[in-house]
Design goal:
This protein is mainly α. Among the domains are: 39 residues; 68 residues. 62% of the residues lie in helices and 0% in strands. The N and C termini lie far apart (144 Å).
């Protein structure tokens, strides 16, 4: 590089000429390389008759292949069992979440029903509805309690007594 710099200052601008010469030389080399690469290659097919060849059994290789196949089968089985358990656990967690949502909805519905029941069974409301329908409070002695013993002076409800059957039928 130092030689080029001194040549540039001594010759007074010859640097562009040298670059052009160098580029021309590189282009010529590339063209020669391309010419060498363009040579076509011809391939001829060879037909070999291998019908007389017989493969000799290799018991060591057969045993290795059986062991390898068994190991792959065991590994595949373990992976499938793990996958089955994993997806089963995921499915169970979704089912649990669904049941939690159902339980939450049922509790809310139960709460609403209890509120409705409490509202509908208020004594003041029932009394108001009874007065609107024209009902009045019962008179004393008008209510009969089935568990109490009737007074001898109080009216008695009619009773049906079945007649005794005669004969043997």
């Amino acid at each position: 590089m130092a030689a080029c710099a001194t040549t540039y200052f001594e010759s007074g601008g010859c640097w562009e000429g040298r670059i052009a010469e160098h580029n021309t030389a590189l282009m010529a080399q590339q063209a020669q390389r391309r010419r060498r690469m363009r040579t076509p290659e011809v391939f001829f097919t060879h037909h070999f008759d291998n019908s007389r060849l017989v493969k000799a059994p290799d018991p060591v290789r057969a045993r290795q292949m059986r062991v390898f196949s068994g190991a792959v089968a065991v590994l595949f089985s373990l992976i499938m069992i793990y996958g089955l358990q994993h997806f089963s656990a995921i499915e169970s967690s979704y089912r649990v979440e669904s049941e939690k949502q159902t339980l939450k909805q049922l509790r809310e519905e139960n709460r609403q029903l209890r509120l409705t029941e409490a509202e509908l069974t208020q004594p003041g409301r029932i009394d108001q509805l009874a007065h609107q329908l024209g009902l009045v409070e019962p008179a004393p002695g008008q209510v009969v309690y089935p568990s109490a013993r009737p007074d001898s002076g109080a009216p008695v409800m009619a009773q049906v007594v079945a007649p005794a059957q005669k004969g043997g039928f």
